[in-house]
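Extended Data, record Gamma-glutamylcyclotransferase AIG2-like domain-containing protein
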Amino acid sequence: MTLPFFVYGTLRPGESNHDLFLRGRVQEEVPGHLSGAVLYDGPGYPYAVEQPGGVVHGELVTALPRLYAGLLADLDRLEDYVPGDPRSLYERVERRVVRDGDGVAVPAWVYVAGPAVAARLRRRGRRLAGGDWRTRDR
């Protein structure tokens, strides 16, 4: 299934992994937000953890169609996501993400913390108030 990606951390424009992974591979990047999740510090990179009432801010990234499969594979590796592997740091899930400009909700791939990571973060992680990686204390 070809979906846009919702990025909320180091893949956002101006952040460390944006140019390494996305430059020249996308046709559109628009601000958006994911409801039902909160953001935790990695440290060095964030984790979205699903939680009712939360919101995470980021961008919806639409890949160039001819480059989609390669980008998907590269992002899965970056996020240490292996389908079905409980040791994965992240899980890639389909969620509805709202485009900030027009309020339209679209299905998108989102990398959320894997179950073991999410449980650890809920117990003793540092939650980022406001759900925006760009406003974190550096």
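Summary. The mean pLDDT is 95.
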